[in-house]
Design brief:
heterodimer; A: alpha/beta; Rossmann fold; 6-stranded mixed beta sheet; about 30% helix; about 30% strand; B: alpha/beta; 4-stranded antiparallel beta sheet; 9 helices; globular
């Protein structure tokens, strides 16, 4: 049985179609990433699964329970970490954790094993108010609170947004451990480079799933041969590429430019430049799929 | 010409050395990446450069003005854009441009001329009379950049400008920075996207209040024997002794 089954979910807010016929399954014990920019519909989908928002049509189940009929059962089985910091700012670290444990009818001691690794990092500050914590610390506390009742599945909505690269990497290490402990993790992010850390990913843009697969297969499905080019002045080179008819696609990508040609003609009228074939990243695939859709 | 010049700049809060002895220059038209983990001292350094915070010691000039004495002139001659706040959501695109143009003391004629130019250049014809709150995040970001450079500053400070934006818009945004650089506008950028560090001509990485390295991304990767800027960043961030608390 899949831990999460989403079938033909649609949701609109007035004229805006937030989710268009979304179908997705997340297997038991999977670390599954929902990847897309702000406004793609990620939060709407998470809120539907967390039984906080009703879809206009379609169905979804979590751990076999229907998100509409069985919302009470679902609420006891999920750990939900919303994008915005959702803890009580005026309560201390310890008080927040004790509060969430009590609400779910458990104690910190009962499931301490599950959070021990994460909680130890914030324990020196257990008397500090949540509102006074740094971003990385808040994120760790929120994860502890979402875990304290030993949920079957974790729903993490953009847990790493605005957190620096070091804390981001630490956070993903924690998710790997939770997965190893048998917890299914459904996590959203706008950072494309986090895709490779997931078992499977779904790319979402403007309410639509563009592709669902393992990160390796998404990259393998890229339909073109991708090149990277570099010159002394990349901006001038880009202007040139945009004018050439044998260039299908060109855009900036760090130190290099990315280029896709229309055919075998790889001529570029620019002096002193470097050109070599390169393996696409998930971000290149996202761009390709976005262009394909529009 | 140097647009930023900083010598042994320090900022202490009591016994806490937020910024310790940083020195660097940024050239006209350069795209300069300013990186560091949370708590490394980036924001404090940037606030001093923008004339918002008086240094404890050291020297510095931004756009030719002294960061102790000429803070008002600095504010008038730089652009600033952050992901968190840049635009008034309940004004239209053009109203935002007019408002900021007015704040920076541009004349009505200048504002009208520049508005037409910006709308054409960024292809905002369809969005010029739309309320900013109704715009997709990629377009908002374009408008925010237009607003921050509307008064033709020599340098623009971009504080994590691309968070949460789709990859195609992120690319369009960097093309805008390149275009501005081609016209001689300097960009001073902070970002959490390590791949974006690679768009910069040179990058500095701060650790515990100090600039630990300052090189081109290519040289930096070679120096650290790393495949990506992310690896370089981790190698350095691991050395940090103080945490963000």
């Amino acid at each position: 049985m899949n831990t999460i089954e989403i079938t033909n979910i649609c949701k609109r807010y007035g004229p805006i179609e937030a989710l268009k016929d979304v179908t997705l399954n997340v297997g038991q014990g999977e670390l599954f990433g929902l990847i897309g920019p702000d406004g793609a519909g990620k939060t709407s989908l998470f809120r539907i699964l967390a039984t906080l928002l009703l879809a206009d049509s379609g169905t979804a189940t979590v751990d076999g329970f229907d998100v509409v009929k069985d919302f009470r059962e679902i609420r006891n089985r999920i750990g939900y970490m919303p994008g915005r910091f959702s803890l009580y700012q005026d309560l201390s670290v310890e008080e927040n954790l004790a509060f969430f444990a009590t609400v779910f009818g458990t104690t910190i001691r009962e499931n301490y094993d599950l959070i021990a690794d994460i909680y130890r990092k914030i324990e020196p500050f257990r008397k500090r108010r949540a509102g006074q914590l740094s971003g990385g610390m808040k994120q760790k506390l929120a994860l502890c609170c979402a875990l304290i009742h030993k949920p079957v599945v974790l729903l993490l909505d953009e847990p790493t947004t605005g957190v620096d690269a070091v804390s981001r990497r630490e956070f993903w290490e924690m998710l790997k451990k939770l997965k190893a402990a048998g917890i299914t993790v459904f996590v959203s992010t706008s950072y494309m480079d986090e895709a490779s850390l997931c078992n499977r990913i779904a790319l979402i843009q403007a309410g639509q799933i563009l592709s669902t697969n393992t990160p390796e297969n998404i990259v393998a499905d890229y339909p073109f041969t991708l090149y990277e080019a570099k010159a002394g002045n990349n901006y001038r080179l880009l202007e040139q590429l945009k004018q050439q008819e044998n260039v299908r696609l060109s855009y900036v990508a760090g130190e290099y430019l990315r280029v896709v040609f229309n055919g075998d003609d790889r001529r570029i009228d620019y002096p002193y430049m470097e050109l070599k074939e390169v393996k696409p990243t998930v971000e290149d695939c996202f761009i390709q799929l976005m262009r394909h859709e529009s | 010409m140097k647009v930023i010049e900083v010598n042994n700049l320090c900022k202490y809060f009591g016994s806490f050395k937020a910024v310790e002895n940083i020195s660097f220059d940024v050239e006209e038209g350069e795209i300069f990446g300013f990186l560091g983990a949370n708590g490394a001292g980036k924001t404090t350094a940037m606030r001093m450069l923008c004339g918002l915070l008086t240094p404890t010691s050291g020297k510095g000039w931004v756009a030719g003005f002294d960061i102790y004495k000429d803070t008002e002139k600095i504010k008038r001659n730089i652009g600033y854009m952050s992901q968190k706040f840049s635009l008034y959501e309940d004004l239209t695109t053009v109203e935002n441009l007019e408002l900021f143009g007015g704040i920076y003391g541009m004349s009505g004629k200048e504002i009208r001329y520049k508005t037409g130019e910006v709308v054409n250049e960024l292809g905002l014809q369809a969005e010029k009379d739309a309320l900013v709150q109704s715009l997709p995040s990629g377009v908002k970001q374009k408008v925010a950049f237009a607003v921050s450079t509307f008064h033709s500053p020599k340098i623009v400070f971009l504080d994590e400008p691309t968070g949460g934006v789709d990859p195609l818009s992120r690319r369009t945004f960097w093309e805008m920075i390149y275009r501005a650089a081609d016209r001689g506008v300097t960009s001073f950028v902070t970002t959490h996207y390590m791949d974006e560090a690679e768009y910069c001509n040179r990058v500095s990485i701060m650790v515990d209040g100090e600039i630990r390295v300052l090189q081109s991304p290519g040289d930096m990767k070679q120096h650290f024997n790393a495949l990506s800027m992310e690896e370089v960043f981790f190698a350095l961030a691991k050395q940090a002794k103080r945490s963000e608390l």
